[in-house]
Every structure is written in C-alpha cells, then in structure tokens.
Amino acid sequence: MWNPDDKFRGNPAPPGFYPGGVQQPAYPQQPGYPTQPGYPPQPGYPPQGGYAQPAAYPTQPGYPAPGGYPQTGFAQPGYAGGAVPPPAYGAGSPGSAMPSQYGAYNNDDVGGGMGAYAFSDKTIRLGFIRKVYSILMCQLAITTAFIGMFKWNTAVNNLVKANPGMWWIAMIMMFITLFALTCCGDLSRKSPHNIILLFLFTVAESFLVAMFTIHFQTDTVLLAAGLCTVVCFGLTIFAFQTKIDFTVMGGALFIAVLILMLFGLVAIFFPGKTITLVYASGGAFIFSLYLIYDTQMMLGGNHKYSISPEDYVFAVLSLYMDIINIFINILTILGATRD
C-alpha cells in the first residue's frame, strides 16, 4: 500500500487515492454516456455557445426599448404611468411649462412654476435685471434729449408748432409698436425685431412727451423731472426691500386705471384747475403703484408672479411707461398750481 511518506521519496500517489490512506476504486462509467470529451446537447437545453435570447423584450411600463436604454432627451424609467418630467427651460421645448404668450408665471405651481425655474439661479436674476435697467436708461436718455431739443432749440420748436400733423404720425406709430410688443408675444421675443420695435416706440413716445412739455415753463419741467427721479428711485428701492407682495394686485390696478380713464373723459367736459389736480394726483398715485408692481414682477424670487427672462422687452416697456406717466402727472400738477 502506498504510504504518504513515499511522496518525499519521489513516489506519486496512485490514481483514486483517498487522503485517509485507502485507495478507492475508480468511478465506474455509466452506460450510455460517451467517452469522448464533451456531451451532446440534451433535450430542453440550449445548444453550445450560450443560452438563446428571448424573441423580444417585455413590454411592461418602465422597460427600455430593445437595444439598451434610450439616449438623453427621452423619458427614463420611472416616468411611466403618465407622469410628466420637470418642465424644460426655454420657450417651445417639449415638456416646457412656458405659454406661447408672455405674461405672469405663478410661482406656486408644481415645481415652482416658470418664474421659479427661470430665477432659481442668482446669476440669471441679476443678469436679467441689469439688462432691463440698461435698456431703460437708454430709453430715458432718448426722451430727455427730445425734451431738451424741443425746449431749447428754437428752430425745432417752431418746426413742430408749424406742422401739427407730426403729432398724429407719432401717435399712430406709438400705438402700432405698442400693440406689436404687447399683443404679439413671439414678436417681442425675437431679436433684433423686438429691439427695433422698442426703439421706434421710444422715439414716438419721446416726441409726444416733448410736445407736451413745450406748453410749460422750463423751470417747471426741470422741477417735474427732478421730482419724478426722486419718486421713481424711492419706489424702486421700496419694491426691492419690502416684504409686501404687490404682484397679486394686478386686477385691482387694472380696475383703477379704467376708473381713471373714465374720470378723464368726464374731466374733458368739465375743465377746471380742481378737476385737473384731482385727475393728475390720482394718475400719479396709480402709476406709482404700477411701478412697484412691475418692479416686483421683474424681480421674481419670493413673489407670487414673475416675468420670464425672455420677456425682458416687455419688462422694459412696462417700467418705461410707468415712469413717463408719473412724470406727465407730476408736470400737470405743477403746471396747474403755478397757472
């Protein structure tokens, strides 16, 4: 019998040796099995080379299409059952919550609304505000240049007085451009069309304001401009700092403007210093509230409604009209008290 010590003498263990020292008999070959290497395929087993793949992937909700998971831009598993992924940024993109027209976005909607998505980043908000106020300063500079040219250039003053038809041309151009910018949301977002329309509107409005100022004394116009600057600056700082949300007052302000218009029609048939002062004071107060409202709409953030960053032209137009109306009403008050 082979002894384990024989291993150190160069004697290997015989086949079938069990470590206990007892040599076991070889395992008998079962009948029917071939002796060559490899076994033939058995019934029900796949052929050599791997298991057969199923004819198609299951179609249950959430499974990817054959060929792997879809590429970026398709719904990933987890949005099955009708759930909609978060809205994408930008107008007209699939899944976007942005409407086709400009307007206010409710920050209380699911996911924060478009205003929350648009102003979630501080850099986006600050860039939008800088763009709005940069364009607004250019508009006010054009208006100031027109007023100065009409007040201190005698040739231009006489030319305007001799051609009253220029007033109607400016009025028509102002209404056409205003309608295009406010009622055609897609047009107000396309560059450079929106900038060209805004420039034409600014020129027409500046012409009309300058023609209005030639009926007042120079010191009255300068005083009105100074008061308007102080009032608008103070209201802007207030809109930035206050915790009161003025964006929910849009309906009330619209009704107030309608009442002011009706009062203005009545004032035409009953002219007088008192009714002029009442009308101008009401207009200055209402448009001061509108300046706060439009400023907070531009800021977004914690306010209920906000303007999309793509509607920067609409934001500029709103602030510019508020400032111009405040200036005209202050000038009317000063002119009525000094007359």
Net shape: elongated
Give me the Rg, rounded. 40 Å
Strand content: under 5%
Average pLDDT rating: 75
One letter per element, helices H and strands E, the order comes to EHHHHHHHHHEH
Unreliable stretches:
73-103, 108-119
Name the structural class.
mainly alpha
Quickly count the helices: 10
Give the terminus-to-terminus CA distance.
139 Å
What strand order characterises the main sheet? 1-2
Biased composition (Low complexity): 20-36, 48-68
Region (Disordered): 1-68
Protein name: Protein lifeguard 1
Pfam families: Bax1-I (PF01027)
In short:
The chain is an all-alpha fold. Helix content is 56%, strand content 2%. The chain has a two-stranded antiparallel ribbon.
Secondary structure layout plus pairing:
Layout: E1 104-106, H1 113-118, H2 122-152, H3 154-162, H4 165-183, H5 185-189, H6 193-213, H7 218-241, H8 250-269, H9 273-299, E2 305-307, H10 312-338
Antiparallel strand pairs: 1-2
Helix pairs in contact: 2-3, 2-6, 2-10, 4-6, 6-10, 7-9, 7-10, 8-9, 9-10
List keywords for this structure.
single chain; 339 residues; mainly alpha; two-stranded antiparallel ribbon; 2 strands; membrane; Protein lifeguard 1; Bax_inhibitor_1-related; transmembrane
Describe this structure in words.
It contains ten helices and two strands, in the order E-H-H-H-H-H-H-H-H-H-E-H. By secondary structure, the protein is mainly alpha-helical. Helix 2 packs parallel to helix 6 (193-213). The N and C termini lie far apart (139 Å). Residues 73-103 and 108-119 have low confidence and may be disordered.
